[in-house]
Design a protein that fits this description.
Number of helices: 3
Helix content: 40-55%
Mean pLDDT: 94
Number of strands: 3
Low-confidence stretches: none
Structural class: alpha+beta
Order of helices and strands: HHEEEH
Number of domains: 1
Length: 85
C-alpha cells in the first residue's frame, strides 16, 4: 500500500464543505463502499492525534481508518483528492 499520512488526509477531509462531504459519501457508495458517515476526530488531551471514523451500513460501531481494508482506504483517499482538484 502507498504510505498513508493521516494528517494530510485529515486536513483534506475537514477542509471539505458539507456538499463535498455528501458527494464523497455518495461516490464511495457508488463504488460499493457502504459508508453512511465519516467523522473527523481530534482528542482534546492530545491534539496532535487525529482520526477518521467510518460509519458503515449495518454496523452501529464506527470503524477507525486504520482498521479499514487497504483497498477501501486507498479508494477513499483517491475520491477525497478528486474533490480537491
Amino acid at each position: 500500500m502507498k504510505k498513508f499520512y493521516i494528517d494530510k488526509v485529515y486536513n483534506a477531509y475537514v477542509g471539505l464543505d458539507a456538499k463535498q462531504r455528501k458527494d464523497l459519501i455518495c461516490q464511495l457508495n457508488s463504488l460499493d463502499i457502504p459508508v453512511t458517515k465519516i467523522e473527523a476526530y481530534t482528542y482534546p488531551e492530545a491534539p496532535g492525534i487525529r482520526h477518521l471514523f467510518f460509519y458503515l451500513k449495518g454496523s452501529k460501531q464506527p470503524v477507525p481508518y486504520f482498521l479499514l481494508e487497504e483497498e477501501i482506504l486507498q479508494m477513499f483517499t483517491t475520491e477525497l483528492y478528486k474533490l480537491l482538484v
